[in-house]
Design a protein that fits this description.
Blueprint (H helix, E strand, L loop, with lengths): L1 E3 L13 E3 L4 H7 L22 E4 L2 E4 L11 E4 L6 E4 L5 E4 L9 E7 L6 H17 L4 E7 L24 E3 L5 H8 L4 E4 L15 E4 L4 H8 L2 H4 L3 H7 L11 E3 L9 E3 L23 H5 L16 H9 L6 H7 L5 E7 L12 E6 L15 E4 L1 H7 L4 E4 L14 E2 L3 H6 L18 E4 L2 E4 L19 E3 L3 H8 L8 E6 L21 H5 L4 H12 L2 H5 L7 H19 L5 H4 L5 E3 L3 E3 L3 H8 L5 E4 L6 H14 L3 E4 L9 E9 L41 E4 L19 E4 L7 E8 L7
Parallel strand pairs: 8-9, 8-15, 15-23, 19-22, 23-26
Antiparallel strand pairs: 1-2, 3-4, 5-6, 7-31, 10-12, 11-12, 13-14, 16-18, 17-18, 20-21, 24-25, 27-30, 28-31, 29-30
Helix pairs in contact: 2-19, 14-16
Amino acid sequence: MLVPCQMEEEMPRQRTFYFAIVLRLQVLALVLPSCGLLPLGDPGGGPCPCKEGLVCVNSICRADCRSSDCLGDTECHSIEGADLAVCMPPGEALAIQMDGPKLPVPIDLFWVVEQSAGTCQERNDLARSFFEFHDRLGGQSQVSVRTAVADSGSIGFLSSPATQFPPGCGEYRVRECADDEDCLAQLGGAGWHCNAPSTQMVTLNGSMNSICTFRCGGDSECCREFCFLDECAEDPSCLDKQCKDSPNQGCAFECEQPGGGPQNSGCLDPPASRDCPVEVPSVLDDQQLSLFPCLAVAETASAMSYAASLSQGLAALWTTLDPTGPNTAQAAQFLRPQADLAIMILSDEEDCSIDPDFASPNFTCKDDKDCPGWSSGQAHCKTDLHFSQMSGKPIKLCHGSIKKDYYHSCGLLGEYQGLDHHNCAYDLGCKDCQADADCLEWWYCKSGKCRPNIYGLPNIATFQNPPGTPIFALAQIAPFREKLLSLKKDPLQVFSAAIVGDGLPLPPAQNGSELPSLISKTCLDDAKLKACAAFTEAKKTAETRCIWEPSEEGCEEYRTFKLACIRECYVASKGDPTSPTMAGNSYAAYSDEVGRQDAGLRYIRFAEMFGAAGAVYNPAAGGGIRAALLGIADRLNRRIYRACLPEGYSAGVTVLPLRQAPLDAETTDRKADEAPPHDWTDQTPEPVYNTPGELLTHGPDGDYEILPSWYACCPQDNPDCPSPGPAIQFYAMVKAGTTFEVVYVTPQGSAN
């Protein structure tokens, strides 16, 4: 018979799945689809029903060996967990259908959002694209947000929306310009003004130092410039009609004029959260997700504050979710034991999470309050053993923080490697060596010691004494992953995605030649830059089409070489000693939609450490934040669909490919006046399982995998059971009202 599965309390009715319990052979015959196999021993000439003494298995009549012996080369096989044993040739299998009460699983979405002026547009885009993302995501979710800054004034989740953006969030375009006429010629409208450096138009990696900023006299000018260009094209009368109203109808941009005039004015897309309540819940459940924009658009940090200058997203992430840390109560409220955890990071900067044991030599203090980050538990004032021994008296330094002078140099700081290494790092000669290969990346061997070799590494802290210190200040990345995995009983329950800047080709050149990118000839000619040297060699044998467009199919290897060189040239540019005042302006990616993006190389490494449970998206690539969110939803949907295997499965039993068997509507318990089950195939990624009898492939790159144990597969649904049962992890969304066969191969001669 067919019976409905027992759903968890939080699962809505429309997600109900049904399963078949095989109690009698006749029921098995009714629910299994025909495989198209020729019937064996079927006297009726068709695939069931069978005469007495024969039973129908997989649409084939078999001898029932519970009451008779097997003839010929057939042997008696049994179905695990069912009163059924039949004669079958060696190598053939029997089938039982599985249940699906845990499909899909609930998911906790935790966002770490950069709050610098450079991410105003990204935060608005996140707020406005979230609902499409959530509609595509199949799991039942709850959401919380925190900022990535070192000291946001709060250790917990955000609960206060942004009400306004600072002038630094105004629209600009990176263009080569020497005067206003250059901006007008390229952007085609009055109001564009050139802001060019007095020296050096480009940085070492080719990043443009000049920008065009739009100065407005009123809202209507912002409307004409930014709101209706696509639909009006070259028709000025269309723009006049669309932008004649005040305030603008259908145009979010507003003209902000700090100082009361157009001299420093700019067009701002106001916060998507400006109409939110003063306070919103810090943890949003499924019924409150309409408030997500209120959390996503965090207040932009003041340009004068330390908080604006140092992004420590990884440290902030763990400080907030640590079940034994300073935010215990909120962490316990957010982390549901039965839910998967998805960590999403949105940033246009590099992570600068400082190791809690690191001490900067010139960062003296008297108590914790002297150390930026102390209020969020990330920094402390304490006696430093190394400098105390050197001076012969106690010296207190800030541990776990650095001065904001490093804002543009975090990509150059290495990972902290312990106290002994920290103590000797001040003379830049820790590690003994015989050859360059004995040293870290971008270091070389000189006089038996490893020394920094890439641009600027000896000069990243010239304001300190001795010059060049400190080098190794950042917290190691791998422990953050391990800590997050420890929050769940099963590592498969944790997913991570980073939406951060990364190297990519710039828009096509006008003449259709090779796409330009952020790689300078200086980087290509420098033997110290190993990745760029490897890219130069790869280019010699690459296909022409790959050189022109590395994103083309079949160009993956070439693109990997080029991306590595773009990243390396970016890091070199950040520390360029020949132009220290311009080095901070280097970026790894740019688009008019999201502006300049620093390379978030540590965030990228963090997400990639999760393997198939990690994802990286560049917001400066095509589609922006929306495309990144939809990509994340697709990846998550490959992970949140699981179901427990039927009782009776054991490790010694092999599971063969599955086949679908959609239930007939008459087999459900849905009443006539209820809405039909929701079709989860709406706007979902391919593949979607919806073809009866389709064979599914096994493996991490296939349709499903078998999980040896999953916390939810416990007898009587007991989450604290010591030995949870196995489950099937599906790698695509599953259509409601679908059952699956789990096919077992049992040892030959194992009759019931």
